[in-house]
# Entry
Amino acid sequence: MERERLTRLVLIAVGVFAVAAGCFLFVTRILQGLADKEEQIVRLQREVGEAETRLLSMLQARQHLTRWQAISLPPDSSAPNPQYNMAILRYKDYLNELCRKHKWKVRQISPTAASASAGRNTGLVPIAFSLEADATLDALVRWLRDFYNENLAHQIRKVILTPTEGQVQVSMTIETAAILGAAPRDSLAPQPSGSFLVLDALTCLLCPVAGQATLWWSVSPAGPYGARKLSPHRQGNDYAAIVRKDLFAGLRPVQPVASQPAADRSLLRYVVLTDITETFIRREAWLYCRPTNTHVRLREEGGFNEFEVRDARQLTIVKGKVRRINTREVVVEVAGKFYVIHLGQTLADALAESVKPEDLKKLYQIEIAADGRT
# Structure
């Protein structure tokens, strides 16, 4: 009896130990599985975060690519493969017009081979130009300012300045870029798409002020005021100081101001805003001076929006900038003040009363920034 009782106790102890060991192994296996699942969840969350970061980077890269395609040289619309013969001709015309505006004596403007580093990116087609001309230092500074204010994919790769008698010989290499995938267009500079024009037409029906949709486009990355390549003009950042402190001759002595005949401001009574024309590319206005039988073209695009009205002796009466051309009026800036010229109105009447910046925003939806940009 005693032996059977002892045997029974041993069997019970062995059974209890086996059950405890089984429970321990079972719980250990479950905990190990939970740890593996938790590690897998952490790994998947990390992969999701990395994928979201890559997606955000790709979206930002896509936005940059879209902007660069918008300001790229346009391909020829008639060619089956991307060709840029018309774009090259238009860019050459742009350089010629810019040189004529600043009274450069051009000796040569011709396409040339692009630098080797510019063609490393397979999505970019570099197009280079060689420019040789003679200009004054003041004209050179103004030319460079307008060049870098133009919202195009171009840059100056190399420039050599050789001082001569009162002028500077300019020899520079300019590179512009054509981005693959850019849409063909009829103009060199980007223009509003058809959706903006349709939206502009719809807003004209609802609001008497035209051009609101085009205004939003003009400050977009593809618009003429969307990319700021130069620092804003402020105290201590005056580009005209380059002329006053001649890098070839040093500081110029202050010359006594010689008395000059005053311009005949009475002619402003006979300078009339006669026309406002609009095409699918741009909107222009014309001032007509009856005594001198001359026309002054007004344009809104950056780099071509300055105008001058002169008398019969070619003395400047009024010099200003065009800020907006609407269907019935033109907003100009003269001597830091803003004026509105209506169709058929003389310049003397228009300049008799200036318009405050807050009234420009209220009446014409034109907002003037602190640096003077619209």
